[in-house]
């Protein structure tokens, strides 16, 4: 959506709106969606848009920097883990980190001790992770779902651009040398272009692919 706007002021307004969305997600303690939004805003095809970022209000730029630090991978996602541990009530963790912790726990400790006994530390860790997952399934969010928006976002899983396409459009919007003639811009599909060809329910293989990519990214 940021790259679909032709002028820097328009892109800055869209960027500011996404920063506001990220701040709302932080207040809702929805860290998984927050990670997705911040990750998109920090993509190199967006981060290189100096003219666009220069038009952000100071408080917006500061908020983006703080949220980026919150979900950064430094110290094994230490800032996020501390923030998540301090949350009360409804909270949604970063699923990729939760799955990564499960894999790390399973791989780090053996299934049996040398004397044949079960590793109680490993079983206890797996039990704690299972409790967390069960609590997530039973948690009731403090808001009503917008079904139309959920449906649209579900369909958008099939709308994917390659890295080359993103970089090409990024350089069209803000070339390295502004005096050079920019190439022909890419045609971004709107909802009407791809909605009729998308199934009403997400393809299980598509969801599996996204989950695997999320775990590998972590």
Automatic annotation (TrEMBL):
Please report the stretch or stretches of sequence annotated as the Ras-GEF domain: 1-176
Keywords recorded for this protein, A-Z: Guanine-nucleotide releasing factor
Report the Gene3D superfamilies cross-referenced here: Ras guanine-nucleotide exchange factors catalytic domain
Q: Which GO terms describe its biological process?
A: Ras protein signal transduction
In which domain of life is the source organism classified? Eukaryota
Asked if Zinc-finger is a keyword of the record, the answer is no
Gene Ontology molecular function terms on file: guanyl-nucleotide exchange factor activity
Q: Which SMART domains match?
A: RasGEF
Q: Which GO terms describe its cellular component?
A: plasma membrane
Pfam families reported in the protein's UniProt record:
RasGEF
PROSITE patterns membership: RASGEF_CAT (PS50009)
Among PANTHER family, the record links this protein to: GUANINE NUCLEOTIDE EXCHANGE FACTOR, RAS GUANYL-RELEASING PROTEIN 4
Q: What is this protein called?
A: RAS guanyl-releasing protein 4
Q: Which organism is it from?
A: Alligator mississippiensis (American alligator)
